[in-house]
Structures are given as C-alpha cells and as structure tokens.
Design brief:
230 residues, alpha+beta, 7 strands
Length: 230
C-alpha cells in the first residue's frame, strides 16, 4: 500500500483490527487458519495482556489511514508474568471445551498438543525483568520504514521512562529478514531455538530468536518518534 505512514498510540477501537492482523500473520506472516482454526483464541493468547493491561505501551502503524501493523509493548514484566499464568489457565480451559464442542480439526488438535507439551521448551531465554515487545505488520506494509518507526517510537518511550534494557522475540526462517533489521538499532541476538510446530508445513527450519538492546546510551530517535512520545 502507498500513502503516508503514521505511528500512533493504540486506541480501544483498534482492538478488532489488531486481533485480525495477529491472526492474519500468525503462520509465518500468513493466516494462522491452516495451523489453528480458532482465530479468536489465538488472538486472545497473543494480544490479550497488552490490550487489557498496557494499552498505553502499544503502538499501531497506519498506512494511508489504514491500520496495517502494531507493536505490543510490555513495561511491567512481573505483572505480565502473573497475568499470563492466570490467562493461560483460562485459555487452556476454553480450548479444551471448544475442542470437545466443535470439535477442532486434526491440525488444530496437533497445534494444541504442541502448545501443551513442547511450546514452553522452545522459547529462547530472555532477560527476566526487562520490558519487551512484539511487532507485526501485514505483508502489504512489511517494509523497513514501517517497522523502523514502530521500533524507534517504542525505544523512545522506554528511554524516557528510565528503562535500561529491552528485548524482543522474533521468528526467522529461510530468506526472511531477521536479526539484521534489529542489529541496525543496537540489538544483539542472545538466544535462538527452533520452533518445531512448523515442521512439515514449510521447507525451511523456523527459529525464535531473542534480541536484546541496552538503552543506557539512548535510542536513535527519528522525528516521528519524538513527536509521538514527547
């Protein structure tokens, strides 16, 4: 899509489009449906905390007036951990009920087995008490400028609030742009693990990598980031 790029704070009326983008990009940048058919539950799992508990740390990317991506930010890691413990139990209960009620298809049941038995072992190590973020853009807006402005705006927010470290976790595979995007802004890859749930669904090995940045020297701020945050 062509048009001006605007990075702004999340608003409550952005919730439906953020959840849709989450589901539309959940399978290696494509729709999650072939892997897990319950888009509602998938979006709850990945976006629930950020929209409910830290909406002021969530940013959206508009291209030509249309929301095409987002950055979900967490500045309160201890609250995030407690929330996720409770939320995961609730989501597990809902998934069990829906699996019996619908029932889920073969692919969705396989995805749930992976979540229960393997997912937690395939998450690379990350700083325990540091802020973190997740970034996602639709294919039509997946360019360096949109991602760059989202990242810089969030770094500016963290730096202004006095945080020293931030990390993100990103999926990389094949020729998809990976760590090099983050290395431009002073991130370094600290850990990486293969995500086995995508075996058989793609010819490439898929990895989840932790990237970490020291904020004590301050982020490199673009003019749009300064306007948004300050």
């Amino acid at each position: 899509m062509d048009g001006p790029i605007l990075i702004r704070r999340y608003r409550p009326d952005d919730r439906p489009v953020v959840r849709r983008i989450c589901a539309d990009t959940g399978f290696l940048g494509r729709a999650i449906d072939p892997v897990f058919e319950d888009r509602e539950l998938f979006a709850d799992y990945l976006t629930g905390y950020y929209a409910r508990m830290e909406p002021d740390a969530t940013l959206v990317c508009e291209v030509g007036g249309v929301v095409m991506g987002y950055l979900l930010g967490c500045r309160r890691p201890l609250i995030n951990r407690m929330y996720q413990l409770l939320a995961n139990l609730w989501i597990a209960a809902r998934a069990t009920y829906r699996c019996w009620q619908r029932p889920y298809g073969r692919a969705s049941r396989a995805f749930l087995r992976w979540v229960i038995f393997k997912a937690w072992r395939e998450v690379p190590a990350a700083p325990r008490l540091a802020p973190h973020f997740h970034i996602n853009l639709l294919p039509a807006a997946r360019n360096l400028r949109g991602a760059r402005l989202l990242i810089l705006a969030f770094l500016a927010l963290l730096h202004r609030e006095g945080h020293n470290t931030v990390y993100g976790q990103m999926v990389t595979f094949g020729t998809r742009r990976g760590a090099k995007l983050f290395e431009r802004y002073g991130f370094r890859v600290t850990h990486r693990k293969e995500i086995t749930k995508f075996r058989g669904l793609t010819d490439d090995r898929v990895f989840l990598s932790t990237v970490v940045k020291d904020l004590r020297d301050g982020p490199t701020l673009s003019a749009p980031a300064r306007r948004l945050i300050g």
